[in-house]
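To whoever is on call:

I kicked off a structure prediction for a single chain this morning and the downstream step that reads the tokens threw a length-mismatch warning. I double-checked the sequence; it's 352 residues and nothing unusual in it as far as I can see. Pasting both halves so you can look.
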Amino acid sequence: MKPLSEQELSEIVVNAKTPLNIVGGGTWQARNNAEQLYTSGLSGVSLYEPEALTLVAKAGTPLVEIEDLLAKNGQCLPFEPNNLAALQGVKAIPTIGGVVATNASGPRRISAGACRDSLIGVRFVDGNGVVIKNGGRVMKNVTGYDLVKLMSGSFGTLGVLTEVSFKLLPAAQASATVLVFEDEKTCAATMAAALGSPFDVSGAAHIDGITAVRVAGLAGSVEYRAAALASLLDGKIGKFNWQALRDVQAFADQKGDVWRFSVKPSEGPELAAGLRRLGASKIMFDWAGGLLWVLAPTGLDLRKAEYQGHAMLIRGHALPVFQPQPAPVAALEKALRAKFDPKNILNADRMT
């Protein structure tokens, strides 16, 4: 099913008797055989005001179209959204609605915030078929439910997004990366030192014995800050593929499950050691050590490791996607789903 209007989408949801898999660009594989509901028919930029750094787009709009439009005006989505199609083994193009639904946020999250921090408005159809609007085209204080933040990262379990609004940023004119060759035991301290410096770091990662720290902005400023960081960290300026890290390309052709762990950056190396003891085969650090991408044998439950944070199965079908929540949080989540999707038909597979 591919509705071409919000009203048509509402009617589909109202009349649905069985679960629906909400599909944007198709970069996330369904975990069951439910009927496919495609949002790609809801496409197009509704409003773009470069002077106001504001964009409103329908949820099925391909991400690449939005990024190309913004690039022509020297602007960008602040949170550097990733594209996990290759990792998931599919040929697909992410949609802006899918970006919001998964709260997709790349290396620049440490300086510009996550997707939900740039999101200022949403329209969606809930599990009752009701069209709901929350937020607007400007940042403002929120009273009542902040559905804008709630929908970002809800994975389509509370409603089908139809339109999203963002605040934008000017795109960086230049960037440079400082490389420090070290093992993962000391990488967290290096990245913490970089973020604690006055040099406005926009990315900090560690992979295969290399810690990479990125600065971006005006060309002259980038040159000065990169040199200063190289001196501070005892590193050197070099090349690093940030897009490959963002899209987890290193795991795309590797067999096994892929996990994502979110923890305090200072605890990343200790968690990595514990995951390796359990059988993890490869680990990459992003977000200054607060995000761990982990490759592991199929069916191995890495949530058995000791950590304070959150784990999510990104690629794999043998285990639940999300980490079990403490009882109070689980009760709140259940109550929200009962309110917004009482028939339990919207992407229910994501919660099992």
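Update from on-call: the warning came from a stale cache, not from the record. Cleared it. Sanity check on the structure: Confidence is low (pLDDT under 50) at residues 139-143.
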